[in-house]
Amino acid sequence: MDPVLAGDLARLPELLQAARDLAVREVAGLAVRPVAASGPAPGRDPLPAAGVGGDAALARFAERWAPLFSGSAGPRYLGFVTGGATPASVAGDWMTAALDQNLSGAGGSRAQELERETVAWLRELFGLGEAHSGAFVTGAAMSNTVGLAIGREWAGERLGVDVSRAGAAALGPLDVLSGSPHSSIEKAMSVLGLGRDRLRPVPLLPGGREAVDVAALETALAGAGGRPVLVVANAGTVNTVDFDDLRAVAALKERYDFWLHVDAAFGAFAALSPEHAALVDGLDAADSVCVDLHKWLNVPYDAAVQFTRRRDLQLAVFHNASPYLGLPGSDPDFLHLTPENSRRLRALPAWFSLVAYGRDGHREVVERNVALARRLGAGVDALPGLELLAPVRLNVVCFTLATDPSAKRVAALARAVAASGEAYVTPTVYGGMPGLRAAFTNWRTTEADTDRVLAVLAAASGRGS
User: Which residues carry this modification: N6-(pyridoxal phosphate)lysine (predicted)?
Assistant: First the structure.
C-alpha cells in the first residue's frame, strides 16, 4: 500500500475529526462570510506526483479554495431556487460517503430498501397515491427527462411502436404542449430525440399569469389529429411560482389521449401547507411527476425524485440487459429505472431529514419561507427605486428597477447586491422586462435576514444602479 495512503488509514479518525472541525468553522461563519465569492480564482496547480496526505490536503483546501466558495448554504443566498442543508441531512450525507453503498443493485446490501422507504414517504408527503412509483435522480432536469422518456414510450405504445428498440425516429413527430415550461424541458426533448422544435407553447391566462389557459390547451389537443401528445403542466413556475390548474388539465384526459407530466420541482412542497395545498390539487392524476429535493427539502446537492404511474414503461426504457446485473423482476433494481447505472445513496440525507424533522418540521420551513417572501415583497413594493413585476404567490419575489429597467442597469443591480456580500439574487426576464428573483427556500432564513436583504436592495437601487 502507498505509504501516504497507509498513514491516512492509520489516522482515519483524526482525519475525519479535522474535516469535521473545518466544516463546523465554515458553517458557523455563514452569518458573516460574503454570500457570493469575489475576486479571481487562483491559478491552476499542476497535478501532484507525490501525495501530501489527507491533513495537508485539507489544509490546502481551507487556505486556497474554501474562501472562494459561495455562501449558498446560508440564509441570504436567494439565487435560483436553492435550499440549504439541514443538520440531519448533512449527517446523512456524511454517512452516505462513509458507507459508500453501490445502489446499482442489491449487492449484499439492503440500502435499496431504504430508498424505497424514502420514496414512499415522499409520495405520501406530496399527496400521491400508491399507483405512483419513484426513484431518486440527480435533479429536476433529470427527473423531467425521465418523465418525458416514459411519456415517449407511452406514445409509442399508442402507435404500436417499441421506441426503446426502434428509436425515436420510428415514432415520428411527437409534440409537447406546455404553457410556461422550464428550460430543462427543451433540454430533455433534445436529449430524447424529440427535438426542441416540437415544443408547442400554449397561451397563458391573461393578467400577467404564467399559468396555462386550459381552454387553449383543449383547443391544441383537439388539433392534434388523433396523434398522442405529451403535456407538461407546471406546479410552480420559476419567475412567479404560478400553478396550472392541475385538476382541470387532468380532466381533459377524459376526452383526449395525452401523457400528463407535472413539473413540480419545488411547487410540490405547497402540499405541506394547509393554506397552499389546493395549488397542487390534481397532482395525483399525473402520469409522471418531477420534484427536486435539494430545493425545498433542504438536502445537499444533488437530489431529486421522479414518480410515474407506468413503471412497466419506465422499465422498458431504462432496463440494463446484462447477466452480471441480473434481470429486472417485479421490484426491479434502480439501475433498471433511471439513466444512471452507478447510483449514490442519495436517499439517505432525505431519510435522515424526514426522520429528524418529520412532516411538521418541513411544513414549518415552507410556511416560514412563504411568509418571508411576502415580507420582502412588501418591502420592495414600498421602495421608490424598485417595483414588483408580479404578486408574491408563494416563495419567489420577482422585481425590477422602477425607472429605466434596462438589462444593463438590472445586471448592475445584481452585481451590486452580490458585491455587498449581504445577499445573492439571480436575473430573469418576465413579460419581456429584465428583472431579478429572490427565492426563499433555505431553512435558516429569518426575518432579520430578510430585512438585511431589503436594506442592501434599497441601498443599491438608491445609488442609481
Answer: 295
Instruction: State pLDDT tens for residues 120-136.
Output: 999 999 999 999 999 99
> Where do the DSSP E strands lie in 204-294?
229-234, 258-263, 288-292
**Domain of 120?**
102-344
- The H or E element that residue 200 is part of is strand 199-201
Mark 122-156 as b/e (b = at least 16 C-beta within 10 Å): bbebbbbeeebbbbbbbbbbbbbbbbbbbbbbbbb
Q: State which H helix or E strand residue 201 sits in.
A: strand 199-201
Distance (Å) of CA 428 to CA 238, 288, 432: 9, 28, 10
CATH number at residue 46: 3.90.1150.170
Spatial contact of 169 and 156, defined as CB atoms under 8 Å apart: no
Structural domain includes residue 93:
no
pLDDT digits (tens, 9 = 90+) for 195-238: 999 999 999 999 999 999 999 999 999 999 989 999 999 999 99
Question: What is the domain-level CATH number for residue 111?
Answer: 3.40.640.10
DSSP of 106-133:
-TT--HHHHHHHHHHHHHHHTT--TT-E
- In the chain, how many domains are there? 2
Cis omega (within 30 of 0) for bond into 100: no
The strand order across the sheet containing 229-234 reads 133-137, 304-308, 288-292, 258-263, 229-234, 176-178, 199-201
Query: What mean pLDDT is reported for the chain?
Result: 95
Last residue within a domain, chosen from 344, 369, 396: 344
- pLDDT tens column, 341-357: 999 999 999 999 999 99
441 closest CA partner among 109, 44, 157, 72: 72
∠ Cα 87 93 98 (to 5°): 130
30-39, 162-171, 389-398: lowest mean pLDDT where? 30-39
Q: Which pLDDT score, from 0 to 100, does residue 108 have?
A: 82
pLDDT in tens, 78-115: 999 999 999 999 999 999 999 999 887 777 899 999 99
What is the secondary structure of 407-457 as a DSSP string?
HHHHHHHHHHHHHHTS-B-EEEEETTEEEEEEE---TT--HHHHHHHHHHH
Tell me the three cell numbers of residue 410.
438590472
Instruction: Assess if residue 233 is contained within a domain.
Output: yes
Name the burial class of residue 282, with classes exposed (0-12), middle (13-18) and buried (19+) by CB atoms within 10 angstroms of its CB: buried
> In this structure, are 443 and 381 located in the same domain?
yes
Tell me the pLDDT tens digit for each residue of 412-458.
999 999 999 999 999 999 999 999 999 999 999 999 999 999 999 99
- Give the C-alpha separation, 68 to 404, whole Å: 33
